[in-house]
Amino acid sequence: MNSLSIAGSQVTVEKLLQSLIKRCIDFDISDIHFEPLDGRGRIRFRRDGLLETVSTLTDDKLQNLISRLKVLSGLDITESRKVQEGVLRWQPSWDRQRDCEFRVSIIPTVRGEKAVLRRLIGEEKLMRLTELGFRKENELLLEKMISSNQGIIFVCGPTGSGKTTTLFACLDRIRREEINIITLEDPVEIYLEGVSQIQVNSEEGGSFAEKLRAGLRQDPDIIMVGEIRDIETARMAVRAALTGHLVLTTIHTFDALGTIIRLREMGIPSYLTAETLLGIVSQRLLRKTCEKCEGEGCEVCFESGFRGRTAIQEVIYIDRIYRQAIMNSHDRKKLENIRENKETCTLLEDGCQKAEAGLVEIEEVERVLR
Fold first, then answer.
1. Domain check: are 149 and 22 in the same one?
2. Which of 17, 108, 118, 358 is the most buried (most CB within 10 A)?
3. Which among 115, 132, 98, 128 is positioned nearest to 22, based on CA atoms?
4. Are 184 and 163 members of one domain?
């Protein structure tokens, strides 16, 4: 049992919750999972992208804990058959000047209710572009993209690859009093001063496309769309970029070139993609090798050999050569030839270089690129 572990069955519900949240804050835990199993409960932390069990407890205690979460987040404690979502605001007893917020998601399963707390990030925890692990040349390319007055920038990768963190680092770099920035998010997870953040909730009515259409009437200079999920949102985002706005968004594709192909498959005309696309960032998050023990395992990394995370990235800036290829609807092979001729650093190459520098293990690179 490591220092994250908690004897859940030996303390009161209130003390257990306090202990869990304290560890979440102290050790940069992103999510806390409260899960029903057969006749018992389990609590797991997501740390550096992976889940680990920190406590087991009786089924009754788990349900009491979930009921307490409902009370604290303003949910209906009598309802156990429907999905419920809320926000838990927590002022630690050990630091009255420090407020914490968690998004609470509760869902019924065949073994009982499961709850997940996702820690919401305030501006004090916002990462800067210089902290995201970009190679210098890639950072400069991204700076060039976000300095544009209009066009669209995509950040791509699977869920949990840090796309939203990168988007907010970009917004933080370019926000200033004389420009109007609007974000459309589902849900809002990072709060940014001076930015109009709009939560998109399809269950309550309204899609990304509908909120984007409304947002365009708010005289925006820059629009961040949390995710391109459908053809209508893609069309609206491209139209916004075409009419003088800078649009930043994410899309689920394996790599940067895959984004160009995906837009084509979604029915976006090649000439519009060529005219509006500024660039694409593809990325993955890797666990960093613990600096203290160099991967051997110690008390600092909870014997795991890893502490913290960094990113590997591929950045493609859409220049005249790429625009012509996109306009002509060239296939992936021809786009790969252009990338190779430009000596663009791929995800694999960036990962191998970080492994050679001792920042990550080569097995981590292989794991995230499988």
1. no
2. 17
3. 98
4. yes
Are 138 and 280 in the same domain?
yes
Rg (CA), the chain: 22
- Under the banding of pLDDT at 50, 70 and 90, the label for residue 91 is confident
pLDDT digits (tens, 9 = 90+) for 34-73: 999 998 999 999 999 899 999 999 999 999 999 999 999 9
Domain that holds residue 314: 124-369
Tokens representing residue 198 in the block: 């709009």
CATH number of the domain within which 323 lies: 3.40.50.300
Question: Could you give the number of structural domains in the chain?
Answer: 2
* In a shared domain, residues 129 and 109: no
Kindly report the pTM of this predicted structure: 0.85
CA 23, 26, 32, 37 torsion-angle sign: negative
Can you name the residues that pair with 197 across neighbouring β-strands?
Answer: 183
| Dihedral pair phi/psi, residue 207, rounded to 5° | -105, 175
Are 106 and 69 in contact, with CB atoms under 8 Å apart?
Answer: yes
Tens of pLDDT along 256-305? 999 999 999 999 999 999 999 999 999 999 999 999 999 999 988 888 89
User: Is residue 1 included in any domain, yes or no?
Assistant: no
Q: Model confidence over 139-191: pLDDT tens digits?
A: 999 999 999 999 999 999 998 899 999 999 999 999 999 999 999 998 888 88
